[in-house]
Amino acid sequence: MVPQNPMPSLAYSFLMPPTIFIAISLAAAIFALRCRRLGILLMLGSSLALYLSALPVVTTVMLLPLTVPKADPAMLRRAQAIVVLGAGLLLGNGTDTPDAPDSLTLERLAWAVRLYRLTNLPIAVTGGHLMGSKTALGILMARELDQDFQVPVRWIDAAARTTFENAEFTAALLKASGCDTAVIVTNGWHLRRAIWSFERAGINAVPYPAGPVSARAVTWADFLPSVGALHDKFYYAHELLGLAYYRLRY
Questions:
Q1: What is the enclosing helix (H) or strand (E) of 84?
Q2: Chain segment 33-45, per-residue pLDDT in tens
Q3: In sequence order, what E strands does 106-219 have?
Q4: Mean pLDDT over residues 195-200, rounded?
């Protein structure tokens, strides 16, 4: 989830690659007008960091500490509910195009539906209002499951704005229904922070990543810059910093 207040989110995103390295490169170019040698060194360093950020092999290494394996069937059998965490949404135009879950949220919902078909466990969805949205993400997720997947939703949290609030608010709903063990469905790189948050909220969390979790073999192409690597690295760096912050904050 993204904080509702845009300023902390904007400041936090500014620290993520590649934005921070681009900003340093621009600042170094200006600094070089006054101190040529130091400005050039800063520009070379930030350019090298930007290049490394675009390498898929570096992205793969960053993913390793975030990877949580999918739970075994025995753990799934002990679960009493499925919890799907929202990611983001696409803002509508206020007239003929309504707000809708974004691609990450839809991916999580699709994997939750697959799990529901296997287990028939009741589903909880969680996600509050994001900046500019007219409808809470949790409401949109429940609507998507009902209308497009014909899957019922038992619990809806429409207030959470962060991963920790996802866990805190959903845990309260589950405990009120006598549930203390739940399968947590979110993207693999987000699972470690989500599992940590739900455990802190008093729920026995069973990991279920939306997508494959096994690492693929490294090839020569992984040493060539890639836009996809930059895209993935933003999420991985966000999670690594977020996990460290959560452990200090909560």
A1: strand 81-85
A2: 888 888 888 888 8
A3: 123-126, 155-157, 181-186, 204-209
A4: 97
